[in-house]
Amino acid sequence: MVSGGFGKAFLLGAVLFALALAAPAPSLAEPASVGLVVDTSGGYARLIFAMPELSEEVDASAQIAGNVLIVNFTKPIRIAIESIAMQAPGYFSAARRDPDSKAIRFALARKVKLNSMAAAEKFFIDLLPDTWSGAPPALPQEVIEELARRARAAERLERLARLAAQPKKLPPVRVRVAHQPTFMRYVFDVPEHTSVAVDRADDRLTLTFDAPITFDMADAVAALPAAIAAINSEVQDHSALVRFSFPAKVDVRTFRDDNSYVVDIVGADAKPADKGAGEGAAPVIALDAGQTAAGRARADCHAGVEISSTIGCGLTASAASNRGAVRIGDKGRADAPSRSTAGIRRGRSAETARGDTGKAGDSESRPTG
């Protein structure tokens, strides 16, 4: 039994050992390929390390220790440096790469000033003569243009991100108005989960909705009762305000009804505010001092004022006196009151009767042939 158990354990160990041999060993990160260009045409040596394969997590730095320029990278790189001394013999005498491929060391052939900067996946190292004075050299124009293009693109992306983060603008919501005998009802339809805060005072009511809702107040403004001076709405950054103004103290009821918020103005006349008492009424033409109604009527006729056919320009003095005053109608006509018209008709009938009686008397007193 012991030997059998030992055999099984030995077999299991052999299998695990074989699997371990078959498993691939973890491979080291492949060094990134970096290009190097040396330019000495500007009176100084500029080293340009092109690192298109390196991500933003990889940084480069440069320093001078004694007569050695050391360029460090945060990740291993692969770069050709064998001909660096031939490309800039007045600045370098030799160059080598560290065993871990994370640094390059350049033996300097002269004393220089160091200036380095990174831009657009490139790392620039300027070795300036020790007699250099003034500002360090600028970046190449194409690099500046590329940086400007990227800055514009980044700004555009940031603007789009801000717009996407902002809540979408809701379409206008029409405020519904209900006319009741004893109160006015205003119904505000709001999205679900929209909260409303109420601020009540004697002469005003303010509703604050926690969403930028645009309310269409056309119906509410068109039928304002006398108890409400004004209604207006305002949209702010993340909220909307509706304000009621009252000329006097009124009773107000507010409550939530599903996806609507209701405001009742109790005691408000459900009819729109009336116009002035005299608005639309026919004005009365006053008579001048010493002027009779008949004289005014005749003057109006001569002046071209159109007189009602029931009065006429042949109005007698007594009928004109019964008329009292002439009222100008909406269309500019002088319309006599119905009572004055009746008096005129009675006056004419009396005159006609007297005329007929006189004619009859004349015929009776006149001797026959």
Structural description of this entry:
- This protein folds into three domains: 100 residues, Immunoglobulin-like (Sandwich); 94 residues, Sandwich (Immunoglobulin-like); 68 residues, no CATH class.
- The radius of gyration is 53 Å and the shape is elongated.
- The protein has seven helices and 22 strands.
- The protein has 369 residues and is α+β, with helices and mostly antiparallel strands.
- Helix 5 crosses helix 6.
Secondary-structure map with pairings?
Elements: H1 2-22, E1 32-33, E2 35-39, E3 45-50, E4 60-65, E5 68-73, E6 77-78, H2 84-87, E7 92-97, E8 103-108, E9 112-119, E10 122-129, H3 141-165, E11 173-174, E12 176-179, E13 183-189, E14 196-200, E15 204-209, E16 215-216, H4 218-222, E17 230-235, E18 240-245, E19 251-257, E20 260-266, H5 293-302, H6 317-323, E21 327-328, E22 334-335, H7 338-365
Parallel strand pairs: 1-6, 11-16
Antiparallel strand pairs: 2-3, 3-10, 4-5, 5-8, 7-8, 9-10, 12-13, 13-20, 14-15, 15-18, 17-18, 19-20, 21-22
